[in-house]
Amino acid sequence: MEQKRYPLGATAAFGLEGVVAGELKRLGFADAKGFHGGASFQGTLTDAFLANLHLRCADRVLLYLGRFEARSFDELFEGVKALPFEELLPKNALVHVTAKCARSRLMSVPDVQSISKKAIVERMKRVHSMGWLPEDGPRYGVDVHIHEDRVAVTLDTSGQGLSRRGYRTFNAEAPLRETLAAAMVTNGPWRPWLPFFDPMCGSGTLCIEAAMVALDRAPGLLRPFDMERWDVCDQAACKALRQEARERFEAKKAEGKPEIFGSDVDTRVLNLSLAHLRQAGLAGLVQFRCQALDQAQNPFPDAERPGAVCTNPPYGERLLDVQAAEALYRQLAGLMQRLPGWGLQAISSHKDFEKVFGRRADKKRRVYNGRIECEIFNFYPPRPGK
After folding, report:
1. Nearest Cα to 61, choosing from 30, 90, 29?
2. pLDDT per residue as tens digits for the range 161-180
3. Phi, psi (5° rounding) for residue 47?
4. What is the domain count for the chain?
5. How far is the C-alpha of 208 from the C-alpha of 283, rounded, in Å?
6. What is the model's pTM?
7. Cα–Cα 20 to 30 A to 83, which of 53, 121, 203, 291?
8. Do 133 and 191 fall into the same domain?
């Protein structure tokens, strides 16, 4: 039976909207368009599951229930109450409402949440002719976003954010979010068939995300999504998509081990890397070694072609002071001199990173690592003959 199509959205961190739109297009959503905070596309509930399963750089996949204007709480109540929640929510749905408000007459998040929840309950009670709702069924996350008095009501199909791959249960200091790490490895000098080296790998996030790309491993393969428990979701279709993703991963893994290497001077975080690698189902597929940055050499000297360094060095804000961070940047420059023909990608909030490193980046992208404004610096190897 043909499923109904819905307006969908994949939310993304600042600076990654275009990256997520590109991911959606590669998944077959030709109408995907980036907007501030994410990318929009059209699709069925099964399409929403496909996006949850395969998007590497998005935060969540949302289904848009409706849009309207509200300048008072009465207008908000009536606008939410008019939406057809019963088409997707069962009468025993456990409804959890979140809200965001910006530049609007309605700026009290707790009031917006409580009034929206009351409107949903009243709608469901009237439709189902019930005096009360048990709310003992599957969880449905409803988000009410108000910006300049325009309200967007969405249903969260993901549950936990898509950065929660399920493999990282312990963190080193200042870790990269998995979605930002994926954006780095998929949008820089590295390609899945090239050697990959993170000489300051910390708890291994960049190496693990690179391994998942190289092995065609869907990032959501080992975790559930809220929508899988919904009655309106085609459970058989979702299971088939998950099985297809598992088979693609197993087939790629059988082709051989990717050339991915991580090192760090701290043995404690390297133990975390190995634990995360096991939890990701990638044990033995990434090499880790304890070594200082100034001692690092080409980890794949017999490789057929040069690779790329991708790393998240200290910024001088959270882990080290500025002078110590700058010393590491100069050591990183020394490493690149020992790796002729290799590309480099590094993320930093240091305003003079390029000056200290000794070279202007070929390409930069402004992003946020947590609350810290950063730039991703891409240094490409010189073309033959230059």
Report:
1. 29
2. 999 999 987 666 657 999 99
3. -65, -40
4. 2
5. 10
6. 0.94
7. 53
8. no
